[in-house]
Amino acid sequence: MILCLDVGNSQLYGGVFTGDELAIQFRRNTASRGSSDELGLFLRSVLRENDVDPAAIDQIAICSVVPDYVYSLRACCEKYFRIDPLVLRQGVRTGLRIRYKDPKEVGADRIADAVGALHLFPGRNLLVVDFGTATTFAAVSKDRDFLGGAILPGVRLAMEALEEKTAALPNVEIVPVEQALGRTTVESIQAGLYFSNIGAVRELKDRLTVEAFADEAPLVIATGGFAPLFARAGLFDHLVRELILTGLREIARMNAA
Fold this sequence. Notes:
Helices cover about 35% and strands about 25% of the residues. By secondary structure, the protein is α/β, with parallel strands linked by helices. The protein has two domains: about 1-85, Nucleotidyltransferase, domain 5 (2-Layer Sandwich), CATH 3.30.420; about 95-245, Nucleotidyltransferase, domain 5 (2-Layer Sandwich). A six-stranded mixed β-sheet has the order 6-9-8-7-10-11, with helices on both faces. Helix 1 crosses helix 2. The radius of gyration is 19 Å and the shape is globular. The two termini are about 15 Å apart. The relative contact order is 0.16.
């Protein structure tokens, strides 16, 4: 069994694969870093609660955009699972050619997303949109070139900025809305958040398609915690919630030796 862990700015997202099947998924808030012991007890407990024997885990793969979290998580894996985890970083085999000016700048989450998308949709140019704390775009060619992309603040980050930087605007529930014309402050904020993100994603999708894939339009793959919010907006071809875990699984297999 392969335990895959994605450490984001808001959540630790994990899953266990038995072969190609994703047996369980779980999440943990990353606002509090937690010690290696706290993380170890959490992971062993969540596995047992989902009828997975921690002793059955034989590989662990980690990607993280929170560098401080990696040390505790790595120590946790060594102490509680007796496994030296694979941490996705420069030097790890991914099968991608990174076309960034400085390949070290590409986030591990974007690489894992790209590998997962190429595994699920081989032979296609791909545009991967990850709706997380930040909304990220990754343009990936069918020849496994990571061409680049774009990054913008995610929908929750935009809402928190409004709440923190204004005196009178409240925190609101982030939901899909039917019309842009809000008739209360809450409705107006919800409309602004929802439709501004749709507009930004649509514009970036169109521009990246022209700039990266002039000869063949890409398949647009959405993932991330906020992706379902935009499922009816016509922005993407496929929604794959577990995309990053799938990518980590494939990277773990490539590096198993």
